[in-house]
Design brief:
four-stranded mixed beta sheet; alpha+beta; 9 helices; elongated; Immunoglobulin-like
Length: 485
Amino acid sequence: MTIQSLGVGSGLDLEGLVTQLLEAERKPKTDALDSKEESVEAEISGLGKLKSKLEDFQKSVDDLRSDENLKGREPTINNPSEGVEPFTAKASNSALEGDYHLAVTQLAGGSRIETADAVDGGYANSSDTVLSAGSASLTFKIDASSDAFTINLNAGDSLEDLRNAINASDDNFGVTASIIDTGTLDGGAKLVFTSDTTGAGNDLIIVNDNDVAELDLVSTTDSSEASTYLAPVRSAQNAKATIDGIDVESETNKFENVIENVSFEASELSELNADGVTFKTSKLSIGYDKEAVEETIREFVTNFNALQAEIKLLTKYGESDLEEDGALAGDSLVRGIQTGINNILFSSVDSSVLGGLFQIGIELNDQNELEISSSDNIGLGSGDDRLQDALDDNFDQIAALFTDENQGIAVRLYDYVEEYTSYSGLLKSRENSAKDQREKIYDERLTLEMRLANTEQILRDKYLNLDQTVSSLNSTGAALMASLG
């Protein structure tokens, strides 16, 4: 390639001429590509914003298509004193409304076993007491369950070695060993075993597997479980409570379905009355979780309006030459989305006695936004009033309005929006198509630059000859003038 500075020989501005000719060739084509690229980039950006708002809207719809979120029951507990909270409660969606007076009278607990006082044949100290002169083992178990683990002892192992082995065992199901030094000669050192397995009849059993005499001091029974040694100083026990004067029990501190579809968990004993014997009761009320449902409905309205605002921005037409159109102005895909959503929103739902969104206070205002109005515009009560009436009188029917598998508004909306927002949805396909167009524009730019480079070479070759010819004529002219001069 012989690209070089033109006009040096002739004195003509041939370099500028080539530049101008190339620019005249490049500009209209580049301007067209810039305009096309700007339009495609705006479309890609607009589709991304639309998809994001649709996904936000879909999330709020998802919260509405589940019975669990719309049929919630709310337990309320009123205790006699603020400082004492004997239990917490949960209620399933099928729990019945009602009030119950409840007192926790006993907490569930595991068994506790202690070795005897030194004066009664127990251990005098904890550090150098040898448990066994040879190899032996102890098995820890709960008869009422399959929980069990074994600790193997070697000759010379001490109380501390046994304690450490128990606490470090990988198979330990909840037994804690500790050594308490009473500080007295009569008491000596006590090895204490505590089980976290609660419930009456679930006492910890320690089996002297090899019937080693020295290990009888830390066992509850021999290998045949015929002889007994240590006895629990505290037996495993059930949790106990009274509900409307009826005694109830549970192996753990959690009471399941004692009240149908309601569970409560005891955490401390209820307060005692002035007589020091009977317990004060707390009032447990099971009601509808109206506040959560109302919040979910209002959030749905807010997200729909945010979607509408984004669509309005993306599809607007500029009111003057100075105001640009929205990235998706006049786009049939967006119009289709709006039409589809509106058709679902204001359809009738026969599976709910409410029939439609209007009966829970939702209506379309003059700005094509959903609202729950605070004023009565048409003589049928305000949106707020209709929503509160539905929450008070037809609580479960609100769920049917949204969650019915065939007609539910939220179910249908979610599936409809999914057609656009899924990985293989219509918006993704449209976005991929726009990105393909962008790649095509990149290719067209490359082709244009290659063609212009070729054109530049042709022009330079053409004007180089002119430059050389004029330069030669100038030289000849100069020579003639010199000879004539």
